[in-house]
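TICKET: design request
STATUS: open
ATTACHED STRUCTURE:
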């Protein structure tokens, strides 16, 4: 039986390899194919005894990653080789030197960038953040590292079902937090969309399932509608002799979900659930005019929504994306989004950075991508930046909408939405930002907090006496500005810290205290500070002074008596803590943590208020012990991604005969006696206690919040179902 299975697997490996060769046939010659074959043979041999969590041969993974790199991103031979070998150095006996000897230094360098950090890491720093920073360091050398890493992440997401649930949640959260926005920023829209949908599938599985089922149900009618919509357009495009293709596609599940949240509507009420894409063939000099001619044809047949026109042809997005978007009223009163672009624009939209290099030189607008890469390099040049701070700074501008601002000379600068004059100043030059005294927007003086809008003309006023201030950090949106301000403040802090150190040493010498590394650490611990720089800075600013030094010396001089006293005190506190823990465990539901099902002290996080039966996880805080969050908590994705090393598996040990507080948002049409109906159902029919009720009515509609005490999740869901049956109530939502 095993030999049959092995034979089937060998055939499948060869089929996948042949599929890879087909996917890259237009980019490879005979010599390229020889090199790919060599990489394939090495990968097969290196991974021959390895299997994935699903039970499949491990070699399936690198082959499929290489196929994504070739087909979906459009990468060439070197990248395909690197994709095939991306786990070989980390997981097998092959070294980077071996790879360089067999292939070349370029391949070895890319694989080095793809190899994960395996060293011991600081427990106060996210491993994921460190890995992400290391990956981005390769931007300075070769952007292909990032592109292959995205292909790797996409395949891991496609095969995530075989992983344990807690790992699914961690990986999916990390994907939504960092990798999907990164794909967007590099112009890989197809990959971005798939990563988002798969991320939603594992973080909000019920929501994902409900939307996907509704999309499947409406597929046939959607196809009929698209055909009806495009008939007159095709006739006119043919008449005017355009070389074109028209495709229709539903909006992604993730984007539909976002619209439901943003607009506070149900699936049926999202007005543009599908889009039409018209791709025309055009010479570079005709691209703009052809797209506007097609727009004219579309709007001749269907009325456009003037607020939904997006012209990214005249002013492309910073990632190189060019397209003309409009939303028009189609047959039967349905809104339809229409995207109009050329073949070149579509290539860049689908394959992002890889296509950018293909067309580089044909259109100067693509230089925006190069500018972005340079900005990331600037962020990476700061050796003092904490990994988590770096990731936060990096993420700030990954997924933001863009605005276009003019200099006094008429030059155009691209900034994220809600950027301020300070962001604009740092966009011009670091020195301009650091010496920014004020700004004029459209000729009028404005404060630093002023939010810029597309089309604003901004003039920066500078002074050599001005320098960055701490409060500037609250006025900036861009990672560049934030990073530069922090660097300046740190330099100033170091200067003050040096003065503070000299002051401290003088004072300690005066009272005959020998200052060494041991004393320094004792003082940091005594004052409960993070590091020596913070301590010296506080002495330099006068926040720590003679009084504090005397307090430290007195404690130090207590000797054995003081030590004994502290030990006794510590023991008492420990005993008290034990009693307190028992007390707490007995007064709230028991939750089991980790793989060993340990009973530990915890608190329920206030941001999501979990109740018995909810899917939960534990998060180890720095000061407040373990906090338990619902997996649907609004903060779950951020916590799982940034601090995965502090996440603990958690499950309910007992969920019955206990009471939990839950908050419900109720809305609908106002009617006489409605409040009475609600309270009667909750208190009498369901036998549920109401902690509080707050209902506001406005012009015939109402919205209210109910705080109720329930036994578990099933009890709460039953209550919600009953409330939805009351006439006048449109929606009941748990908060």
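STATUS: resolved
RESOLUTION: sequence designed for all positions
ATTACHED SEQUENCE:
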């Amino acid at each position: 039986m095993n030999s049959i299975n092995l034979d089937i697997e060998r055939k499948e490996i060869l089929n996948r390899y042949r599929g890879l060769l087909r996917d890259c046939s237009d980019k490879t010659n005979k010599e390229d194919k020889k090199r790919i074959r060599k990489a394939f043979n090495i990968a097969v041999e290196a991974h021959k005894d390895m299997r994935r969590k699903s039970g499949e041969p491990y070699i399936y993974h690198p082959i499929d990653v290489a196929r994504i790199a070739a087909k979906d991103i459009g990468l060439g031979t070197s990248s395909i080789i690197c994709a095939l070998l991306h786990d070989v150095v980390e997981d097998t006996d092959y070294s980077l030197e071996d790879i360089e000897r067999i292939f070349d230094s370029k391949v070895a360098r890319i694989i080095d960038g793809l190899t994960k950090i395996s060293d011991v890491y600081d427990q106060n720093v996210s491993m994921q953040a460190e890995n992400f920073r290391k990956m981005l360091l390769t931007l300075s050398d070769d952007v292909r590292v990032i592109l292959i890493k995205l292909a790797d992440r996409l395949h891991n997401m496609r095969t995530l079902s075989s992983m344990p649930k807690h790992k699914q949640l961690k990986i999916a959260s990390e994907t939504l937090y960092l990798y999907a926005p990164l794909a967007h920023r590099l112009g890989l829209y197809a990959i971005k969309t798939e990563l988002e949908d798969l991320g939603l599938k594992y973080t909000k599985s019920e929501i994902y399932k409900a939307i996907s089922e509704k999309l499947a149900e409406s597929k046939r009618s959607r196809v009929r509608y698209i055909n009806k919509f495009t008939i007159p357009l095709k006739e006119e495009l043919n008449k005017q002799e355009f070389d074109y293709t028209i495709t229709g596609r539903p909006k992604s599940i993730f984007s539909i979900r976002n619209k439901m949240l943003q607009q506070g509507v149900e699936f049926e009420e999202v007005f543009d659930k599908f889009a039409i894409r018209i791709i025309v063939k055009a010479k570079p000099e005709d691209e703009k005019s052809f797209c506007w001619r097609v727009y004219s044809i579309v709007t001749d047949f269907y009325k456009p929504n003037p607020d939904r026109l997006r012209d990214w042809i005249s002013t492309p997005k910073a990632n190189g994306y060019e397209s003309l978007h409009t939303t028009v009223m189609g047959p039967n009163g349905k809104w339809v989004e229409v995207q109009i672009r050329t073949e070149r624009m579509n290539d860049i939209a689908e394959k992002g950075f890889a296509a950018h290099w293909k067309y580089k030189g044909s259109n100067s607008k693509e230089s925006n991508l190069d500018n972005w890469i340079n900005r990331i390099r600037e962020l990476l040049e700061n050796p003092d930046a904490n990994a988590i701070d770096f990731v936060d700074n990096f993420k700030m501008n990954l997924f933001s909408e863009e605005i276009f601002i003019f200099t006094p000379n008429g030059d155009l600068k691209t900034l994220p939405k809600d950027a301020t004059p300070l962001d604009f100043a740092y966009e011009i030059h670091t020195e301009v930002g650091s010496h920014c005294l004020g700004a004029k927007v459209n000729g009028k003086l404005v404060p630093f907090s002023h939010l810029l809008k597309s089309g604003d003309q901004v003039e920066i006023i500078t002074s050599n006496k001005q320098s960055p201030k701490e409060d500037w950090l609250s006025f900036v949106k861009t990672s560049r500005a934030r990073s530069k301000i922090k660097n300046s403040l740190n330099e100033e802090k170091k200067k003050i810290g040096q003065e503070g150190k000299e002051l401290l040493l003088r004072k300690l010498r005066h009272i005959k205290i020998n200052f060494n590394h041991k004393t320094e650490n004792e003082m940091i611990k005594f004052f409960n500070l993070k590091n020596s720089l913070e301590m010296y800075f506080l002495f330099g600013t006068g926040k720590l002074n003679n009084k504090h030094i005397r307090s430290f010396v007195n404690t130090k001089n207590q000797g054995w008596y003081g030590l004994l006293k502290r030990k006794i005190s510590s023991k008492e506190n420990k005993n008290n803590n034990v009693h307190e823990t028992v007390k707490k465990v007995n007064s709230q539901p028991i939750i089991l943590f980790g793989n060993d099902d340990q009973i530990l002290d915890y608190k329920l996080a206030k941001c999501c208020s979990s109740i018995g039966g909810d899917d939960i996880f534990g998060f180890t805080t720095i000061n407040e012990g373990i906090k338990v969050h619902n997996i649907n908590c609004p903060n779950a994705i951020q916590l799982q991604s940034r601090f995965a090393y502090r996440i603990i598996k958690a499950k309910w040990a007992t969920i019955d005969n206990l009471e939990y507080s839950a908050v419900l948002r109720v809305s609908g049409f106002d009617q006489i006696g409605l409040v009475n109906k609600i309270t009667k159902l909750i208190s009498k029919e369901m036998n549920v206690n109401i902690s509080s009720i707050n209902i506001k009515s406005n012009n015939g509609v109402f919205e209210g919040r109910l705080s109720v005490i329930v036994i578990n999740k099933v009890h709460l869901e039953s209550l919600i179902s009953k409330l939805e049956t009351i006439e006048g109530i449109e929606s009941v939502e748990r908060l």
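CLOSING REMARK: The first strand starts at residue 244 and ends at 250. DSSP finds 29 helices and 21 strands in the chain.
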